[in-house]
């Protein structure tokens, strides 16, 4: 909300020398956040004065452009010249070149003299141009930064002004004013007005607020039978609330709609962030900003009969003031006449009844619409207006007649209107119900001892009616505060008005801690290890499509997994809670690749969401009610299982090509190495076997298992079709493991290796087996056969090609033998090796490669 200070001073005791910063500092004490300062003089400085055109000589130059060589008086004739600036003539008459043609001799205009600075840092100097010394500029509203008019310079008579020559034009146009902008939270819609801000300023300065709306309400005439017929016909209320509870209509005739908007009004509107359009439109906006009540003006001659407020019918359309034709929804609340819809209630009027410069009779609408209805219509049509912002936050239900009276007064004063007798006031509003506030509740809730007098004074100050009844206060919230609904809201208001600074800042004594949990320690160790290994941690969006869960969370194709759908998703493509980290990682990878990052190793640690037998709960306890054990048990039963996974993706090269070093592309081994890092950091045992997964390459997929043979995850290259469909690089690799299960499986026992006192003996063995036999199973068979003397075994070669039968492979292992109590002989090591080969031959038909 932008607050022009000159406007605020009419209704609040703002000191004459107060700045926008001072006002914001004051409003902060009652809960408003500072946003910005709007001060025209920050970009605009004088001398800028009113001048009168004495002569203008058109001159056409060689470039084909016709300019006017003007003589402009900037000091009243016969008065001394007191203006300062290099290039200002002592005679008070300036020679100025002007390219505009929308003025004539005798017109009074705004002249920016040498020494002036215009928005954008444009400094005015005396300079030679088009064969003359031009000492100044005749300004347009655009050049002054007060509008977007492209039709030439500002002629003051066109806006109803006839000031004396030499008058300070900045003061004349209200350019010395300034505006403070504060953030208004959604629950304080009343503060979207000068009335509301003035009230809050008085709260902050502990001064009495005199509500000007009360006088307007007293002067507003009562409804009579001569008013415009209005019917409220809401057959489809939302949430049980009728869409319109009050509708005031007033009529004025003899309106001069082409009359100029006075500068005091247009300058305030401009500072408030609203563009001046025409006098009737400006008056409606002015009253809305001043009182908080949105208005709509209809050209009475364009109305067909009376007004009906109803819901839209199937197939209806409406062309709104922005010249867009909108297909209406049956939930939309409309303003209609006999011809059909003429406005989206509380959002935007229709084009058919729009006022224009020819309008002479105006119907003024001041209504109160349901917050939910307006908010839904605004969002449905992606049409947010100043009116809808106020209606969807709640408008004072006693304000309509007063705001209409204010509009009538301004139309009479500024547009020469005549007030018609007819007054319509459909009023179906309901007074606020009293709220019970226990006397000690606020003190107990806030932690500050508030006296009974402080409580009564604070609540009375916000406009509430307070009645003391023994141990309780009965408090009726004011009509402009729909956000006050219970004792908690009243408590917040008391704390705010008495002062947040009165609430002591007392930090609780922290209980003695026990440090990180085992899970936290292990997780930090894993994240550190992956980061040190060169990977980058990312955080992906946890909401995915159902198809993504079906692809990544199960190895079998064609399965539809049970997943948890969001009640109010941002988009249908992201409507489900993830069951795998991979969909989010793929999106992160794609986004980075599209921005030119070609070599990436990323990982994420996060929760996935696996539904149980029950999803959610119907036993949601009310506010302020402590749930029982049965309710808590039901709530807990509806919470999905949320294990933590760790996943990563590798694309491009592990390192770039450099002198003496060729680039190495990431491959499946990097994914397996990352998994082994995780296992080492957690102390878990992982075995790797050949696996299959619909999202991974058919022949380059490792299934990761724990000591019990249960699947913990997968690693390897992604499926070529998936890479092509997602425009990812070839040979992109990935891994994903169930970190929670790994921690549950790990042994708490840590074995420390002894110091070797005797040397080891190394021997190799190459075995020919069927190509389908996993190397891990062969390794396990060799280890079993070798016995206790075997200290270590690893694969160092997998060969398939010339010399090896089709369908077979040669797998080579390096074996290391050692004894604790002696130096092994070659014969002992060879005997263990032969025993290992025998077990592999028996189990897999392995043949020693010659």
Automatic annotation (TrEMBL):
Annotated B5 domain ranges read 430-505
Cofactor: how bound: Binds 2 magnesium ions per tetramer.
Location comes to: Cytoplasm
| Keywords from the UniProt entry | Aminoacyl-tRNA synthetase, ATP-binding, Cytoplasm, Ligase, Magnesium, Metal-binding, Nucleotide-binding, Protein biosynthesis, RNA-binding, tRNA-binding
The record's Gene Ontology cellular component field reads: phenylalanine-tRNA ligase complex
EC number from the UniProt entry: 6.1.1.20
Q: Which GO MF terms does the UniProt record name?
A: ATP binding; magnesium ion binding; phenylalanine-tRNA ligase activity; tRNA binding
Q: Pfam families, per this entry?
A: B3_4, B5, FDX-ACB, tRNA_synthFbeta
The cross-references to InterPro entries, in alphabetical order and at most eight, read: aa-tRNA-synth_II/BPL/LPL (IPR045864), B3/B4_tRNA-bd (IPR005146), DNA-bd_dom_put_sf (IPR009061), Fdx_antiC-bd (IPR005121), Fdx_antiC-bd_sf (IPR036690), NA-bd_OB-fold (IPR012340), Phe-tRNA-ligase_IIc_bsu (IPR045060), Phe-tRNA-ligase_IIc_bsu_bact (IPR004532)
Q: Which residues form the FDX-ACB domain?
A: 756-849
Q: What is its main location?
A: cytoplasm
Q: Record's Gene3D superfamilies? A: 3.30.56.10, Bira Bifunctional Protein, Domain 2, Ferrodoxin-fold anticodon-binding domain, Nucleic acid-binding proteins, Phenylalanyl-trna Synthetase, Chain B, domain 3
For binding Mg(2+), which residues are annotated in this chain's numbering? Answer: 483, 489, 492-493
Q: Which reaction does it catalyse?
A: tRNA(Phe) + L-phenylalanine + ATP = L-phenylalanyl-tRNA(Phe) + AMP + diphosphate + H(+)
Which GO BP terms, alphabetically?
phenylalanyl-tRNA aminoacylation
Entry annotated with the keyword Cytoplasm: yes
Look up the domain of life of the source.
Bacteria
Keyword ATP-binding annotated: yes
Domain annotation TRNA-binding: ranges? 42-170
UniProt similarity note: Belongs to the phenylalanyl-tRNA synthetase beta subunit family. Type 1 subfamily.
Quaternary structure note:
Tetramer of two alpha and two beta subunits.
Query: This protein is called what?
Result: Phenylalanine--tRNA ligase beta subunit
Question: Which organism was this protein described from?
Answer: Rothia amarae
Q: What is the lineage of its organism?
A: Bacteria, Bacillati, Actinomycetota, Actinomycetes, Micrococcales
């Amino acid at each position: 909300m932008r607050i022009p200070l000159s406007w605020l001073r009419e209704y609040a005791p703002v000191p004459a020398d107060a700045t926008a910063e001072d006002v914001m500092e004051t409003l902060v004490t009652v809960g408003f956040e500072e946003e910005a300062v709007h001060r025209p003089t920050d970009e605009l400085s004088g001398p800028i004065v009113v001048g009168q055109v004495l002569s203008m000589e058109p001159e056409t130059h060689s470039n084909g452009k016709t300019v006017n060589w003007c003589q402009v008086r900037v000091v009243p004739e016969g008065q001394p010249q007191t203006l300062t600036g290099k290039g200002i003539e002592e005679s008070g008459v300036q020679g100025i070149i002007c390219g505009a043609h929308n003025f004539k001799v005798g017109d009074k205009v705004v002249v920016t003299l040498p020494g002036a600075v215009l928005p954008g840092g444009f400094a005015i100097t005396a300079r030679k141009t088009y064969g003359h010394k031009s000492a100044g500029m005749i300004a347009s509203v655009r050049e002054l930064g007060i509008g977007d008019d492209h039709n030439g310079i500002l002629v003051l008579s066109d806006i109803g002004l006839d000031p004396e020559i030499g008058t300070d034009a900045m003061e004349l146009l209200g350019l010395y004013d300034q505006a403070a902008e504060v953030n208004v939270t959604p629950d304080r819609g009343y503060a979207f007005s000068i009335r509301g801000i003035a009230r809050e300023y008085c709260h902050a300065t502990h001064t009495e607020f005199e509500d000007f709306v009360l006088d307007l309400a007293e002067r507003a005439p009562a409804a009579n039978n001569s008013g415009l017929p209005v019917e409220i016909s809401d057959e489809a209320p939302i949430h049980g609330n009728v869409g319109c509870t009050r509708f005031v209509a007033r009529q004025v005739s003899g309106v001069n709609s082409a009359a100029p908007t006075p500068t005091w009004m247009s300058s305030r509107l401009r500072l408030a962030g609203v563009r001046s359009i025409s006098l009737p439109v400006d008056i409606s906006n002015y009253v809305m900003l001043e009182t908080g009540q949105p208005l709509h003006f209809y050209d009475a001659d364009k109305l067909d009969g009376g007004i009906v407020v109803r819901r839209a019918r199937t197939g209806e359309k409406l062309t709104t003031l922005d010249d867009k034709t909108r297909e209406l929804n049956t939930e939309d609340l409309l303003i209609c006449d006999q011809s059909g819809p003429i406005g989206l209630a509380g959002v935007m009027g229709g084009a058919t009844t729009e006022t224009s410069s020819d309008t002479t009779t105006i119907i003024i609408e001041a209504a109160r619409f349901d917050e939910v209805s307006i908010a839904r219509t605004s969002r449905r049509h992606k049409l947010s207006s100043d009116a809808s912002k106020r209606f969807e936050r709640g408008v004072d239900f006693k304000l309509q007649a007063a705001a209409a009276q204010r509009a009538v007064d301004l139309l009479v004063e500024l547009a020469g209107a005549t007030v018609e007798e007819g007054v319509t006031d459909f009023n179906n509003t309901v007074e606020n119900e009293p709220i019970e506030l226990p006397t000690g509740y606020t003190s107990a809730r806030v932690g500050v001892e508030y006296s009974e007098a402080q409580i009564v004074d604070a609540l009375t100050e916000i406009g509430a009616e307070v009645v003391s009844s023994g141990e309780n206060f009965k408090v009726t919230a004011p009509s402009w505060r729909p956000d006050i609904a219970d004792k908690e809201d009243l408590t917040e208001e008391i704390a705010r008005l008495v002062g947040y600074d009165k609430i002591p800042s007392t930090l609780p004594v922290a209980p003695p801690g026990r440090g990180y949990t085992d899970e936290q320690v292990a997780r930090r160790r894993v994240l550190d290890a992956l980061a040190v290994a060169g990977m980058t941690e990312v955080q992906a969006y946890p909401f995915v499509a159902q198809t993504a869960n079906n692809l990544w969370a199960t190895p079998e194709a064609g399965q539809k997994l049970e997943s948890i759908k969001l009640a109010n998703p941002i988009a249908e493509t992201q409507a489900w809670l993830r069951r795998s980290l991979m969909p989010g990682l793929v999106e992160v990878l794609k986004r980075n690749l599209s921005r030119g990052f070609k070599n990436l190793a990323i990982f994420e640690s996060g929760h996935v969401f696996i539904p149980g037998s029950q999803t959610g709960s119907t036993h949601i306890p009310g506010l302020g009610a402590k749930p029982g054990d049965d309710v808590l048990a039901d709530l807990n039963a509806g919470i999905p299982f949320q294990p933590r996974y760790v996943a990563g993706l590798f694309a491009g090269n592990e390192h770039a090509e450099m002198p003496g070093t060729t680039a190495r592309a990431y491959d499946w081994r990097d994914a397996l190495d990352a998994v082994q890092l995780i296992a080492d950091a957690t102390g878990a045992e992982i075995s790797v076997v050949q696996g299959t997964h619909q999202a991974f390459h058919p022949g380059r997929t490792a299934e990761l298992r724990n000591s019990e043979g249960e699947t913990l995850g997968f690693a390897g290259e992604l499926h070529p079709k998936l890479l092509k469909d997602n425009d990812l690089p070839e040979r992109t690799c990935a891994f994903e493991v169930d970190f929670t299960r790994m921690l549950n499986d790990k042994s708490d026992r840590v074995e420390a290796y002894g110091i070797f006192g005797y040397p080891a003996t190394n021997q190799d063995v190459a075995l020919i087996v069927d190509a389908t036999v996993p190397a891990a199973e062969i390794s396990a068979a060799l280890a079993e056969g070798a016995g206790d003397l075997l200290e270590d075994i690893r694969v160092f070669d997998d060969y398939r090609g010339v010399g090896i039968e089709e369908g077979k492979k040669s797998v080579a292992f390096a074996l290391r033998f050692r004894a604790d109590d002696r130096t092994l002989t070659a014969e002992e090591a060879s005997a263990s090796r032969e025993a290992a080969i025998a077990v592999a031959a028996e189990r897999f038909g392995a043949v020693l490669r010659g």
